[in-house]
């Protein structure tokens, strides 16, 4: 079935909403035959009322978890159709109810604010009026901070388990006493080695803990963590802003939902860009995010990453811009530094604030005359461009800017 035929199956006013959005060039039927078939299949599901069936939203939560859009990685009329079908349902939910479906709520809120959707919905008001969600007060999801805590919880058990065989070995090694003096000498002889062994085991266990904590599971990061801070310790990834609002308690802060290609869904990120980049220029943008900073509370909202920006060499008032990944980049793609010593290195699982790794490396971040983002080694002056597998990340206009 073609997309056009599937759209005709929709009931009015939903059909009018979809056809109205099609008039805008940003709403697409699909870029390939495979995508077109998938778009048609989704619209047909909507026409059959599957989204409004009991348990339908729960199923959608699961299907949408790894996605920003229904088909591929771009906006299509299938997204408009699903948004329209969900509107009468989500518009009636109270916060505890839509908090229970964070992925569907995130998808719905993202689609409803797209310019083409708002333009198509205007003549159909109030059928598809904007639904306000209190996302700022949604229950905090601290999934990003959990993995290090789990490792810490397991290590004491592992350490305790490693001492058990030593205790059994010690019990086996006790010889049957022949005379009192022999027994005393035997006990003295056997007491010393276990103490040394216990010390060695303790040191080995502690060494293992330190290594595991520093590496986050990667050998290259372990080697780097043992020396001076280097840029490849920083976990940079392509991100996509799927929702953005102003912080309810801070005039200068945005609260963004940024898709980093993770199964858990978008991360909440707080950034102080309100006075420098209009919200319209932030919405739906692809960017580069720093993903292994320790989560931080920003006026009551926990932030799980940082948006990498270029600040004019003349200061913030002269301009701040988002660092942009190459065209066609997808959420979660690895961003790395050119150079044999950095390209294959594994970032740390989480930067230790006490070691000030980011703060030490950051002064070398800049944009070149080509506007390409790079790290310049302060000692050797060697240039290491910041890139994905498809190309170098850039600032839209700023040259000689500082990155942070």
Automatic annotation (TrEMBL):
Keywords for this protein: Cytoplasm, Protein biosynthesis, RNA-binding, tRNA-binding
tRNA-binding found in the keyword field: yes
A Gene Ontology term for the protein's cellular component: methionyl glutamyl tRNA synthetase complex
Biased composition (Basic and acidic residues): 141-150, 179-194, 200-209
InterPro entries in the cross-refs: Arc1-like_N, Glutathione-S-Trfase_C-like, Glutathione-S-Trfase_C_sf, NA-bd_OB-fold, tRNA-bd_dom, Tyrosine-tRNA_ligase_regulator
Domain TRNA-binding: 230-336
Xref: PROSITE patterns: GST_CTER (PS50405), TRBD (PS50886)
A single BP term in Gene Ontology: translation
Compartments, record wording: Cytoplasm
Pfam families according to UniProt: Arc1p_N_like (PF21972), tRNA_bind (PF01588)
Chain residue ranges for the region called Disordered: 139-231
GO MF annotation list: tRNA binding
Residues in GST C-terminal domain copies: 1-133
Stated name of the protein: tRNA-binding domain-containing protein
Organism: Ceriporiopsis subvermispora (strain B)
């Amino acid at each position: 079935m073609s997309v056009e035929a599937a759209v005709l199956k929709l009931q009015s006013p939903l059909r009018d909403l979809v056809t109205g959005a099609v008039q805008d060039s940003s709403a697409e039927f699909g870029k390939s035959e495979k995508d077109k078939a998938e778009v048609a299949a989704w619209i047909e599901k909507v026409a059959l009322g599957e989204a409004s069936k009991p348990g339908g939203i729960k199923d959608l939560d699961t299907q949408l978890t790894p996605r920003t859009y229904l088909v591929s990685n771009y906006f299509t009329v299938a997204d408009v159709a699903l948004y329209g079908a969900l509107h009468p349902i989500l518009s009636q939910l109270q916060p505890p109810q839509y908090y229970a479906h964070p992925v569907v709520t995130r998808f719905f809120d993202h689609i409803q604010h797209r310019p083409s959707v708002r333009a198509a919905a205007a003549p159909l008001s109030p059928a598809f009026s904007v639904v306000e969600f209190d996302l700022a007060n949604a229950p905090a999801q601290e999934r990003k901070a959990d993995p290090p805590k789990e490792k810490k919880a397991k290590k004491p058990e592992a350490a305790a388990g490693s001492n058990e065989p030593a205790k059994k070995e010690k019990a086996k090694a006790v010889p049957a006493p022949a005379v009192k003096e022999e027994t005393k000498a035997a006990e003295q002889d056997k007491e010393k080695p276990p103490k040394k062994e216990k010390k060695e085991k303790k040191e080995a266990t502690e060494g293992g803990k330190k290594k595991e904590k520093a590496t986050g599971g990667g050998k290259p990061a372990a080697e780097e963590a043992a020396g001076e801070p280097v840029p490849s310790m920083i976990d940079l990834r392509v991100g996509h802003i799927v929702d953005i609002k102003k912080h309810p308690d801070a005039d200068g802060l945005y609260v963004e939902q940024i898709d980093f290609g993770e199964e858990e869904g978008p991360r909440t990120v707080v950034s102080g860009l309100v006075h420098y980049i209009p919200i319209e220029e932030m919405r739906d943008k692809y960017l580069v995010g720093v993903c292994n900073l320790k989560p931080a509370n920003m006026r009551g909202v926990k932030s799980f990453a940082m948006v990498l920006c270029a600040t004019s060499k003349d200061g913030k008032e002269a301009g701040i811009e988002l660092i942009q990944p190459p065209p066609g980049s997808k959420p979660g793609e690895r961003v790395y530094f050119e150079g044999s010593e950095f390209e294959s290195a594994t970032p740390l699982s989480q930067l230790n604030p006490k070691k000030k790794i980011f703060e030490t490396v950051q002064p070398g971040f800049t944009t070149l005359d080509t506007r390409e983002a790079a790290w310049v080694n302060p000692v050797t002056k060697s240039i290491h461009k910041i890139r994905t597998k498809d190309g170098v990340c850039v600032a839209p206009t700023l040259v000689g800017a500082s990155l942070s």
